[in-house]
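Quick question, first post here. What does this chain look like in 3D?
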Amino acid sequence: MRPDLRSELVHRAERLQAAHEKTERDRREAVSEVEADNVAWLRSVVAEIGWPGRSMVGSDGADAALMLAQHTGRDHVFQRQCLDLLRRAAEAGEAAPAQVAYLTDRILLAEGHQQEYGTELIGRDGQWLAHRLRDPATVDDRRATLSLGPLADHIASVTARHGPPKPSVIACDECGAAIEVWLPDLGDEQTISCAACGWTVTLIAGAPPET
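> Answer (accepted):
Ran it through. Tokens below.
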């Protein structure tokens, strides 16, 4: 065991979670700063020892390592390096197979592709849905190969823990009124209007950068 490494992984994951829980105004800068620090640190760790498996850092340390790998900003090359190491760790019993699914889906969506396992959810009209999922009819078969239960159970669990999703809120440029909106998906656009003054704007979700 490496209790020092385990402790640092857990600490960094907690710090990242705290950044994500900040208010909308402060969240982006805080998350960007923490992610940049975590990526540099995690890169040095995997260069030295490979993927930190359960026998080295415990289950909570391994979960924390996954969280850090899921949040590497736009460094998709490093994320794929982590995924390769994580796959080998899972084959050796050093990581949970489900972790491979979570990191795979995160990378696919970040690169503009459809996810495979439905681990990434998005809020739409008060419900959680799998975000850009390939072949939904067979997703439960794919999930089973990595020890994941049915997608419906995953959605029900997220809803029970967090409640139904809420729309984003943007401020009207003209009068400052709050406008609730379900943000458009990648490549889509949406025109919204302010009920208070009639101001309109078109929101466009851009594609991620090529890697």
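The longest strand covers residues 189-193.
The chain has a mean pLDDT of 92.
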